[in-house]
Amino acid sequence: MLLRRVSQHVKTQNWFAVAIDFFIVIAGILIAFQITSWNEARKDSKRELQIIDRLQSEFTMLENETEEYIEFVESTKPIIAEFEQQIINYPEDANLELMKRFFETAFSLPRPAGQSDTYQQLIASGDMNVLDNQTLLAELVNHASLTDYFLHVNQATREWSRSYVVPLVRLRSLLNVLPLEEAVSSSGTKADLIVAINLYKEVFEDQLNILKAHKESFAELNKMLIDEKHEKNL
């Protein structure tokens, strides 16, 4: 219909009408492009908000998990000190139940929390550009690097210290099958056990410091995600 009208106007050399027709066509195309652009922007914004929401949910869970680890580690510090005194004073006041209590609770190092599944999916799919806040993007990358570092340090520390805490590992196994005196004497010298427990205490404190630093990183990132989500919802 419009094309026929343009042809008629050209034949009659009504150039003003031709100009108006072309203006209508161009305006229509621009409006169509704008509507498409708005729809795409709305979809992108909705998707970005969904990703931010998932990230915030996962990082909150990981932060809470790390907080639980910290509480567990803090709660077992007195048990480690109690066990250390048992070894130092042995055989005086030796207490089988107190020694077993150490191995059942405090002889366990929780690992740092891992990466967010949503973040890993964004990296794998190359969709990090969905997030338009560059500061948030930088913080996500920094946190991921920090997490990788903590996991690496944790694994390296475990491997390095494994051979040094052999007397403790041996004692843990023997306490369940031998009398206390025989279990202790078969685990190594008293000096070996004291060295092992002191090394374990240092590793334990290092692990606690890692967990606390990790929790701070989680808290900072979660604050940024909550602020970003609030801003997107305005």
UniProtKB/TrEMBL annotation:
Parts of the chain that traverse the membrane: 15-38
Keywords from the UniProt entry: Membrane, Transmembrane, Transmembrane helix
Keyword Transmembrane listed: yes
Domain of life of the organism encoding this protein: Bacteria
Protein's name in the database: Uncharacterized protein
